Amino acid sequence: MQCLRQIRCVTKLRAAAPTSRLLKVTNLLRSVSTLQQKKQEMADNKPWVLISEIGDKGFHEDVVDIINQHFHIVCLKEFLQNPALHGPKIQGMFMWNFSPAAEPSLLSCLPSLKVIANGGVGIDHLDVPYINSFGVKVTNTPGVVSDATADMAMALLLASARTVIEGHLISVDSKTTHVPQSLMGVEVTGSTLGIIGMGHIGYKVAQRSKGFNMRILYHNRNRRSVEDEQAVGASYCEKLDDLLKESDFVVVVVNLTPDTTGLISHRELSLMKPTGTLVNVSRGLVVDQDALVKALMSGTIRAAALDVTHPEPLPRDHPLLTLPNVLITPHIGTNTRGTIRKMVQMMVDNVLAAVKGLAVPNEVKAK
Amino acid sequence: MEMADNKPWVLISEIGDKGFHEDVVDIINQHFHIVCLKEFLQNPALHGPKIQGMFMWNFSPAAEPSLLSCLPSLKVIANGGVGIDHLDVPYINSFGVKVTNTPGVVSDATADMAMALLLASARTVIEGHLISVDSKTTHVPQSLMGVEVTGSTLGIIGMGHIGYKVAQRSKGFNMRILYHNRNRRSVEDEQAVGASYCEKLDDLLKESDFVVVVVNLTPDTTGLISHRELSLMKPTGTLVNVSRGLVVDQDALVKALMSGTIRAAALDVTHPEPLPRDHPLLTLPNVLITPHIGTNTRGTIRKMVQMMVDNVLAAVKGLAVPNEVKAK
């Protein structure tokens, strides 16, 4: 393939006019260099890994160097053109934004696959026992995502409460003539925050809210220690209903499991204050979206701010997209340069360990 | 009925989108007869002599000589908001009229707004929302990248009531807090929020990931942030302004944003408000602008109006006026 390209390139070079000869020479040299690089890759001992792509639908090009340092990368599109070519060599798969999907059709092309490293801590989209049955481990990225996700929850809460989107759109609108006195938000300082799910991320949300003098309630499968509660001034609500009734802001920070699917539905939304705001940074399926639409349209709750929906992105005709009291961000809870680099480094560490047959730091075990 | 009523008369700009929110008018109505500016100007001689107080909201009605001379009984102008840079206090005093503002009650909401702007800018909330609701969006954009807030360095310029509350809120995000102020705060104040004093503004600008401007507008702070200050900031730095538009040299800001001298700006205040519709700030991708809504919550506005009512009542009754702004 490379040789054919070279021949075409040289032919074009001979036929080229003098002024473009320098460009043609440069291209030829580049082709030669690529060929030499490929030869080197074949001789190199770096293990091979599969990723979806580099770019807006895959890995940010800024972070690819972290993977490249230790692995040869094959992108899914190239892989699928000839699965037999690279398939037997691939020992690791880097999953980002649920892609490449761990389908049987793909897994059966990867006989040497040892590990699927997921970017992110939530693995509800992965059938871990099924993947394990192929002799493949699953890893995630706990811990490193917590700060950025907690920051995102606060960003959504504040943006919704203080009408930042509406304010900005009015400010930059070509038809705006005056400062709108009717644009009214709700108070954050001194309000009541209800955190559903007080794990790593939920607790960090509590830590951030404390600085705003918010009264903090939380609901969790298990109660936290007294020290943990006192450190952030959080009160345990054994009954979710109590948290819903008393909160001005309800922040959902749970894993998606069979127990939490549809956790927030008609009943829960109707228990919330009409001035209440729902913030979701967990998974779209934790919230019953049809119930949410109804609640927002009827004024059952004031507003919602969602970094996650189901599916992602929503169908373009979904009612959530046009409601005035909804803020939606496209699952960017971990989208900072620092956090993404930490996630990718963690994925690399896990894949290296699995490839070398060592203990895998962040393996997700089937329950 | 109104004539028999003993309630004093006050002048306001209007009720509605350019004036007082209708939700809060009841607070004023409880104690006063209200005349709106438009009605007043139709026949100044009718209500003019009766008006003892003026409620100023969003700089309106303006304390122009032409207006003041129609209000011979005016005792007080109560401003909604703590900043009174738009008022010539000695001049107004010369008419025998006091000026009051609303300190304290605006601090929480304004500090919350500063944090809202900082977070929205850092985490690309506007861009994210617009992509999410765009009819042409087909996939989740992996290229949408923000900057880390947790563990970053915050530089607060102006550590008064509001600036200090910004520090209190940032502490929960594990931010390293620097501040620059005319006067250094007490050791206890600094330690309570973990803030370090920067005697030189330049040092704060060089080290901060987020620079939050929370000063009063005075001759000293006009154009405080200009070309030099912006060039000292990190190219990854974000400027947040919740003070007054004139504290920042807007032309310098436009240049800095276009050239990548700083990463982004988030402004609740500009000069003028609103900006001319052809102003470059309105189309730069790395600018977030909100229309001076730093105190726009139901609770805070009600507190502000109540404070204004208390001040006007005191002035009308000849009692000590709680929040009078004295000429320096």
TrEMBL record, chain B:
GO molecular function, one term: hydroxypyruvate reductase [NAD(P)H] activity
Recorded GO CC terms: cytosol
Keyword Magnesium: no
PROSITE patterns in alphabetical order: D_2_HYDROXYACID_DH_1
Record keyword Oxidoreductase present: yes
Key words of the record: Oxidoreductase
Domain D-isomer specific 2-hydroxyacid dehydrogenase NAD-binding: 115-294
D-isomer specific 2-hydroxyacid dehydrogenase catalytic domain span: 22-326
Protein family: Belongs to the D-isomer specific 2-hydroxyacid dehydrogenase family.
Protein name: Glyoxylate reductase/hydroxypyruvate reductase
Organism: Poecilia latipinna (sailfin molly)
